[in-house]
Each structure stands twice: as structure tokens, then as C-alpha cells.
Amino acid sequence: MVKLIHIEFLKLRRRKLVWLMLLAALFMPVLGVFYFTDMGKVIEAMTFYKWAAFSYTQWIILPVVLGILCTMLMYEENRNNTLAQLWIVPISKLKLFISKLAIILIYSLCFMAITAIISLLCAVSISCAKFSLDSSLFLFGKCLEVGILAAFSMLPILAVATAGKGYILPICVALIYAFLGFILLMINMYLHPLSSMSAIVSRDIPGVVLNQALNIPVAFLCIALWGVASVIFANTALKARM
Amino acid sequence: MRLLLWAERQKLRRSKIVWIAVFATVMAAVIVFAQGQFSYSGEKYISGAEWFMTAAQSLGTFFVLPAVIALLGGYMICREEQEDTLKSLKIIPINEMRLTFAKMIMTLFYSVFIYLLLFIITLLVEVALHYEDLTFEIIGRFLKMYLLNGVCVFLAISPIIALTARLKKSYWLSLVFTEIYSFAGLFASTLGSLRAFYPIVAVFNLSGYYNATPGEMVISAASLLACVAAASFILITDVVKKRIITLHKIISCE
Q1: C-alpha distances in angstroms, B124 versus B60, B117, B121, B128?
Q2: Residue A170: closest CA among chain B residues belongs to which residue?
Q3: Which of A61, A184, B214, B254 has the highest local Cβ count within 10 Å?
Q4: Long-range contacts of range A83-87, CB-CB < 8 Å, 24 or more positions apart?
Q5: Burial (Cβ within 10 Å: 0-12, 13-18, ≥19) of residue B190
Q6: What is the pLDDT of residues A125-173, one digit of tens each?
Q7: Which residue from B minimizes the CA distance to A183?
Q8: Any chain B CB within 8 A of the CB of A220?
């Protein structure tokens, strides 16, 4: 398994875009600097972190970037016809899928780590009030949470990308999926893995008011159910392709 | 040119991409409808007449549709390279500049088509929910908005599509960039008088979604013209560069 993940990394090493996409992590923190500087008020570090790391970064930007990565990982295998060679080795279909998930997980963690570091630096640059070690550790802890949960929440997109050979459908599904997760956050958080992820992450962020009563086990159950269904679907689709 | 446009249409007829774009548009409408179930002060958003038609165009434009249109344009351009048909086309010979131009026109057509489809979906829902509140004046106003959105969104993203045409294999990058570019419009719309400069906000100023002053309208039109100029510059310099390379090859062979 470790070897498979290592090989996946070697494949990604040559793809510059994968590394370029990490720049999207800078979007909300940098925008926050302009936004709060323009406001001319001294804001608390936690308010800045909520803007930079716990809002659109986790609702839209990270899911879209991960959706593109999921599609890219599977599409490149199809395009270069390497799947057929992998089956000859032979490599278990489930293991291949899990190795791709591991890449998504590591990438998601890197993305959120960059978000956390940049948010911290931006908060320092605009001299946020109540800047402390505790708030910084809280930021890193939450980013770690988002990184892990987002990867598992994107399993349905990885499954869709695995089932097809093209890149157009999974990309469109990823866009719709991210948009739906964002909208359902206001309507029913426990239907969609991404909105469930937001519910879990928001549980102890000060000042966040949710539209529904918070139920952490149900949110985890939602992510788990979608995840299991996705793994079964991907495994069946890969077997059917043989 | 007509032949090139016909050929592009024939190529797309066999491809699933148009159906996928239709699916994305329908889903965007469904999601906005779901948002309409959200209650504010005891009343659902969707209960307000015109809410659905208003919200679908803005949410769709900020989150989904420009990326789908860029994907469609990028796909049309990149497939010639990917499926290795570009060489055959050059042998005919077909002018690459005219070919790209035909593909851009097809993308414009599909951009308008996507917005028109969204208009029809939202109109049907509004007719079903608020039949008595709708007038021909309202329908005509929204139809104009959606059509202008379709044209202007294409103009706003044309530099990205042109860049895809130039770099050929960069459709992933163009997709990420378009998504962030359209999503940033959400924040750019809060910039006060400066917002008219941002192309995605300019789209809404020109379509009539925002109540723009004549000055803002002029700035928005200039912003979109700048996008078209940027796209033309990218495409023309690409063709010139290729011609110079070919000329060099011919000279070195001789």
C-alpha cells in the first residue's frame, strides 16, 4: 500500500498544475488582508481566521480543487492507458482506489496547512487584536480537521471520476457537488458530506451560528454513508471495466 | 467560416459535453431552488415573485456557469490536439486562426444557450409558483438580462479560453482559474465604485442585474472590451509566433 502511494506521488511530481493549484489556498487570506485593511478597523485574530480559513476556503475552494485533483488522478490513468498495465501486475482495484484517496488526503492536508500558515502571517501583517498562541493552535487544529474531513467528503467525486473515462462529467459533477454542499449548509446540513463537514468543523468556532441543531454523530454518519457507497460504486465500476 | 462552424457543430453533436453542460445548468437551477426553501423572517425565499429568476443568474454565474462555459470552450480547442486531428486539419489546409475563431463563436453560442436554458427553467418555475405576479414586461426584462449575461460572460472569460487555445494542454489550469475568477466576483461586487472594473461584475452591470450608473456602464463595457482585446492579442501573437517558427524551419532546411 505504501509503495502504491509512493508511486502515486512519483506520478504527480511531474505535474506542475497540481502544485500550482495549491496557490488557491492563498486566495481567502490575501483577500482578507485587503478587505479588513479597507475597513480600517482592528479586528480579532479569530474573526480573521473565520474569514480566511473557515468560510469559502472550506465551502467552495478546497472542494473544487480536490474535485479537479480527483478527476485528474483518474483521467491521467485512462489517458495514458496505464490502468490496463496495473491490472496485469496485478494490483487490487480497491487498493488502487485507496491509494488515490491517500493522495487526496495528503494534498488536502497540505492545502489546509498552507491556508493556516498564510492566514497566520496575514493576521500578523494586519496586526489583529487578541493574537495568541491558543488562537494560532486552534487555527492549525481546525485546518487539520478540515483537511481530513474534506478528503473523505470528496469520495463521491473520486468514485465518479473512477467510473468514467473522460474528465468533463466528473469536473461538472465536482462543481455542482461543491455548490450543493454550500447551499445545503443553510437548508439541511446532514444530507451532503461537505455540509456535514462544515457542521462538524463549526461546532466550537466562536460566533458561528448554524441554522440547524448541531448533531455531530449524524454528520459523521452522513460522510461515512456517502464514503462507503462511493467505495462500493468505484470498486464495482473498476471491476466492470475489466 | 460557415463551413468551419458547421463542422464544429457536427463534432459536438457526437460528443456528450453539451448534455453534460445542460445537466450542470439544470442542477444549478435545482440547487438555487433548494436555497429558496430557506426561510427568512418566517417566509421562504422562493415565495417571493422574481426571487428565483434573480438568484439563479447571480449564483449560477458566481459559482458554476463560467467554469462550465470555459470547460466547453477549452474542450473544443484542446480535443484537436489530444485526438491528434490538428495535423489532418492543417494538411487540408485550414487556417488555425480561423479554426480557433470558429471555436470561439461556438463557445459564445453555447454560452448564450446555457443562459437561455437557465432562463426557461426559472421562468417555468416562476409561472408555476407566481403566475399572477408575472407580466410580459418582467419576463422581457429577465430574458434581456439572461441573454446579455450569456454574451458578456463569454466576453469576460474569453482571455482564459484564448490562453487555453495557446497552451493547448492547460484546460485544467483554465478551469481552476475561471472558477476562482468568477467566484472572486462575489467579493468584487462589494468594492463600491471600483466594482465596475471587474469583468464578472461588469457582466451584471451591463445586463441590468445591478442598477449601474451611466459611468459604471461605460467602465464595465470598457472592461469587457479589454477582455476581448486581451483574448485577441493572445490568439494573434500565438499565430504570429507559430508562423515565425515555421519560417525559421524552412530557412534552416534550405
Answers
A1: 17, 11, 5, 6
A2: B20
A3: A61
A4: A83/A241, A87/A242
A5: exposed
A6: 887 777 788 888 999 999 999 999 999 999 999 999 888 877 888 888 9
A7: B35
A8: no
Determine whether the interchain pair B24/A176 forms a contact, defined as Cβ–Cβ distance below 8 Å. yes
Q: Is B27 part of the contact surface with chain A (CB cutoff 8 Å)? A: yes
DSSP state of B132: G
Strand partners, B40: B43
Residue B10, all three cell numbers:
457536427
Question: Which of these, B110, B108, B81, B80, lies nearest to B18 by C-alpha position?
Answer: B110
pTM here? 0.86
What is the length of chain B?
Answer: 254
Give this complex's ipTM: 0.81
Identity of the residue numbered B225: L
Specify the DSSP element, H or E, that contains B43.
strand B43-44
Tell me the shortest Cα–Cα distance from B136 to chain A, in angstroms. 31
Q: Are A53 and A31 spatial neighbours (Cβ–Cβ below 8 Å)?
A: no
